[in-house]
Structure of Fatty acid desaturase:
Amino acid sequence: MNARNAIDMTAPVQAPRDAAPASTWHSQMPDDKAMLRAAAELTRDIAVARPGIYWPDMLASAFVGYAALAGAILVSHPVAAVLLGLLSALALYRALLFIHELTHIHKDALPGFRMGWNLLVGIPMLIPSFMYEGVHTQHHARTRYGTVEDPEYLPLALMKPWSLPVFALTAILLPVALLVRSAVLVPLGAVIPPLRTLVWERASALAINPQYRRRRPEGDFARMVFWQEVGCSVWAIAVLAASFAWGWCPLLIALCVVSLTAFLNQVRTLVAHLWENDGEAMTVTAQYLDSVNVPPPARFSGLWAPVGLRYHALHHLLPSLPYHSLSEAHRRISQHLGEASTYRKASYPGLAPLLMRLARSTMTAR
């Protein structure tokens, strides 16, 4: 959701990796305590989520996304329809990625934001916040990252080359799968308990690890899941009913736009990490170096990795830091620690070099 080229910023840490077996280099890497301390101390004054940034950004992204989608559906000129569809996909992509922020911000930090996001984005896109909440935090757990218990990790760099295009292209089917889930499987699960269990365990989380099984929700979270599921099912059934009554073309266009959005996110996922761990528990520093920052002057990283996700490695150091503070945090930490620091070694020049590095890794994997 990084190829070594002329600018290979990972070179300083390649020797110990290459010298050790692939299954052990992570566990052999001690934590860089100076980096961890600096990251925490230098960002304390920018650690509060600001409603004046979150709300306008999310609302504007959703408005542009839906307006452009309506335009793509209504205009008769094919080129204009394609351009509006592209704009809609990019805007809705940004709006959807606020789900990542919802998993980290304190429940009292932005009053009403979770409900507002679900009503405006999550439920209409059939990706309510419960699909990420309680899942993504496991990816950040100290002893789970990169292991078989991590729902968001696969050792892609150690897999076969064909796994990368398959991984990316399967995302295109996500909108149809979500529609079937909410319109058919969830209602049927209400009267068929085994199906309900299966759907919850296997089709209720934004996870990429096929071994992941989600635990049953409890307490307040279970109540939130119930109402979000009801909202998604009502919306999905209404959309299908409207398509039967007035034609399928609008739905097909919308599915194409959301498929592009899902594909963009899957490509971003491919370069969010180096994916070089084969299941061993890792130190925090090893997790950081297995993750990726694509800071300026990288071009267009704000488009394919919006809402702060261009600083994904930094996010793994400071998971609760709001997205609007990551750029300043990166500037401060980089300036404080210097170019030769461990911190700098997680920065890469762009999307294409990252994809090339990952592809090369699969070609040399055993």
Summary: The two ends are 24 Å apart (CA to CA).
